[in-house]
Specification:
Blueprint lengths: L1 H15 L5 H27 L2 H24 L1
């Protein structure tokens, strides 16, 4: 479903001409290097991490996101 939705949106954006803007193409090109670095780093970390370590990371991210939501509501 995600691939179908993504393909449908991509087709509509191309048909509407939204992806042909020069500024957007530059932003895409500039985003390729950080994306590649993130994919490589994430893959290395994921392969070296145990399942217990992954659970700790996911738990820490959940606690952090909950604290950020709490701070946003409190402010």
């Amino acid at each position: 479903m995600i691939a179908i939705d993504g393909g449908f949106r991509l087709g509509l954006f191309l048909f509407a001409g939204l992806l042909l803007d020069q500024k957007i193409q530059i932003a895409y090109a500039l985003g390729l290097v950080p994306m590649a670095i993130g994919l490589y780093t994430g893959n290395k970390v994921h392969l070296d991490m145990t399942s217990g370590g992954m659970l700790r990371v996911v738990g820490a991210l959940l606690v952090l996101s909950g604290a950020m939501l709490f701070l946003k509501v409190a402010a």
